[in-house]
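Entry: Arabinose efflux permease family protein
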Amino acid sequence: MTQTITGAKRQAALGFIFITAIMDVLSLGVMIPVLPNLVKSFGGGDTAVAADWVVLFATVWGVMQFFCSPILGLMSDRFGRRPVILTSIFGLGVDFLFMAFAPSLWWLFVGRIFNGMTAASFSTASAYVADVTTPENRAKGFGLMGAAFGVGFTFGPMLGGFLWQFDHRLPFLVCAGLALCNWLYGFFVLPESLPPERRQTRFDWKKANPIGSLQLLRNHPGLLGLAGVGFLFQLAHNVLPSVFVLYMGFRYGWGPNTVGLTLMASGISSIIVQALVVGRVVKAVGERGALLIGLFSGFAGFMIYALAPTGLLYLCGLPLFSLTGLIQPGLQGLMTRRVAPNEQGQLQGANSAMMGISSIIGPSLFLIPFAFAIRHDATLHMPGLPILIAATLMLAATFLAWAKARPLPASEPRTA
């Protein structure tokens, strides 16, 4: 289980990591339509109370990610990727069991805390991809992770809504079963990707915290600027789960079915880009070029979404916005080249901590302007205001990437 993987075993390992990433995102997708309704049922059907609890759940989960991701990332550098990935998958399964059998809201709350503390399977899986791919093929490997993200968010809400019709706890039981089966498969099959001689020699608590993660970003040329690009992108991306369902219903009068089909079309477009476009674009223009194309496409797509006066024009933005699938493969490819093999986990932990910050502040950043815009719609008529804010963040990320996303000089040895 701890041997270095080569050849065909790399492909098998990438297949497992792909499935793990799908499970991670699928679980988030399942909760989109299910968790608010379950919380509402505990709150006596009061929507306002349910909204308060859902915001609390999301905030606490982001806080746990912020503090715990650097610890888990450094643990994967010290003890290997395999134990951290398996711990995270097991934590996901336990979290779903908490939700399935929770007798009160506080039990749900404990489950979300536990999951936030252990939810490092996606970030550690990214470090695993960096271990088993060459720098030249790394963007393609991260494209596979992006495809997993698209699959999870495309079919997760559909699965959650379908199972909810039969029993309100069934979606959580099914996801718990899938996660625990995935854990069993990984326990018996998944090899270790980071051999002992390439690991950190000791676990340093000075590095295993958000401040230590920022120090890692500062210690490598250009890495802090690239992390800033990733943070702006993640913050802008938070507009999607925060306001888009409400926005489409308010502006275009779309019901749940139309919104669901639109989200599915968006997810399928993302999968196509990850599977068919990422590799070709990176080969043609490099990781920096792919990153810039993805960021500017996100800016243009958000502008269409915010300003489209009709639903048909809104849909015209879907193909353009799907090119944001180029962002993470290009960005991760550039970032992983700048750190040593025994720092890949710490890097991904730092990225997850940044994502935790964006998850904490994102909902308020977009929901408050949206509420203001629709309250003053008669005079302001700008329901797309939060999406314009997201577009501005994407444009800022594009300019920052133009300045900071430089390939390593040819004379500088690669450390990853």
